[in-house]
Design brief:
- This protein has 284 residues and is of the alpha/beta class.
- 41% of the residues lie in helices and 14% in strands.
- The chain has 10 helices and 7 strands.
- A hairpin with a 2-residue loop joins strand 3 and strand 4.
- Helix 1 packs parallel to helix 2, helix 4 crosses helix 5 and helix 5 crosses helix 6.
- The two termini are 25 Å apart.
- 44% of the residues are buried.
- It binds adenosine monophosphate, zinc ion and fe (iii) ion (2 copies).
- The site of zinc ion has 6 residues, from loops.
- One fe (iii) ion binds next to loops.
Length: 284
């Protein structure tokens, strides 16, 4: 069943395939009424998404980002909701994070070439265009070159975290990203937490840093996982949110925007909390 809320989606401003306007149109057509655009380290799609949002009655765009952060041995993704694209300090940070992606993407391509996989950095940049460049763009170059059948195989075989061509980039810690989101007036929400080890300890640290929400209703999480995370969120006083993490790059079984079991009560709780944020005027 489609939900009226989707708090996690990607456009061509990072590694999604739909332009911000196309994504907004798709989400609205699916019945989504509260929709966050959360591109990786970028708010560059927000202006276009807002213009498209104005065409849909009863639809609210929530400007956001997704930031990659690191803890020992694992990647932790943090959503920043209700962040202003006009916030110059935020933009300084996001530009720095995107610059780190360029050096790291180039490094991954060099490693691949060392392994005899002769894709080029120029082609990856063409695929990415103006976007915040990421591994999915490299994966697309690998598919195009006939090195793997699907994007997901590129991660399994070469560029996943433990893959032979993986290269790390400079990242913040999760607590640093939470503090930065809160300082910029937004709401921090831990993304896809199901596989994180020692989740309770991490949540204790991140709620202390000011994190207010966590994804519970995520993409293809099983009913039991959703229930476990719902209880975990409740225990830590976190708003249970969630999203489709729609990219449009993973083939036909990828859930469309809004295709998550997020209940209306979660949207209501989000709106209550958003109304108390320094950036409350951004949710309209
Ligand atoms: P990056 O931001 O460059 O580190 O790439 C991370 C993005 O790659 C995630 O947001 C996903 O869209 C995608 N991704 C990460 N791991 C996988 C995987 N195992 N299979 C498919 N896509 C993945
Ligand atoms: Zn992505
Ligand atoms: Fe993510
Ligand atoms: Fe995502």
């Amino acid at each position: 069943m489609a939900s009226k809320g989707d708090f996690h989606t990607h456009s061509t401003a990072s590694d999604g395939v739909l332009s911000p306007a196309e994504l907004v149109d798709l989400a609205a057509s699916q019945g989504v009424r509260y929709h966050a655009l959360t591109d990786h380290d970028s708010t560059e799609g927000i202006a276009e998404a807002r213009a498209a949002a104005a065409r849909h009655a009863g639809y609210t765009l929530i400007p956001g980002v997704e930031m990659g952060t690191d803890i020992e041995g694992a990647e932790v993704h943090m959503l920043g909701l209700c962040l202003s694209p006009d916030d110059e300090e935020l933009q300084v940070l996001l530009r720095r994070l995107r610059a780190g992606r360029v050096g790291r993407g180039f490094g991954i391509v060099e490693k691949l070439r060392g392994l005899g996989i002769m894709i080029t950095w120029e082609r990856v940049q063409e695929i990415a265009g103006e976007a915040s460049v990421g591994r999915p763009h490299i994966a697309q170059a690998l598919v195009e070159g006939g090195y793997v059948p699907k994007v997901a195989d590129a991660f399994d075989r070469w560029i996943g975290r433990n893959g032979p061509a993986y290269v790390e980039r400079d990242k913040m810690t999760p607590a640093e990203s939470v503090r930065c989101i809160v300082e910029r007036g937004g709401m921090a929400c831990l993304a896809h937490p199901a596989d994180l080890h020692d989740l309770d300890a991490l949540l204790a640290e991140l709620t202390a840093a000011g994190m207010a929400a966590m994804e519970v209703f995520y993409k293809d999480y099983a009913t039991e996982t959703v229930e476990r995370l719902r209880q975990t969120a409740e225990r830590h006083g976190l708003l249970p949110l969630g999203g489709s993490d729609y990219h449009g790059i993973f083939g036909n079984d990828e859930p469309l925007p809004g295709n998550i079991p997020l209940p209306d009560s979660a949207i209501e709780r989000f709106l209550d909390a958003a109304a108390r944020l320094p950036n409350r005027d951004l949710v309209r």
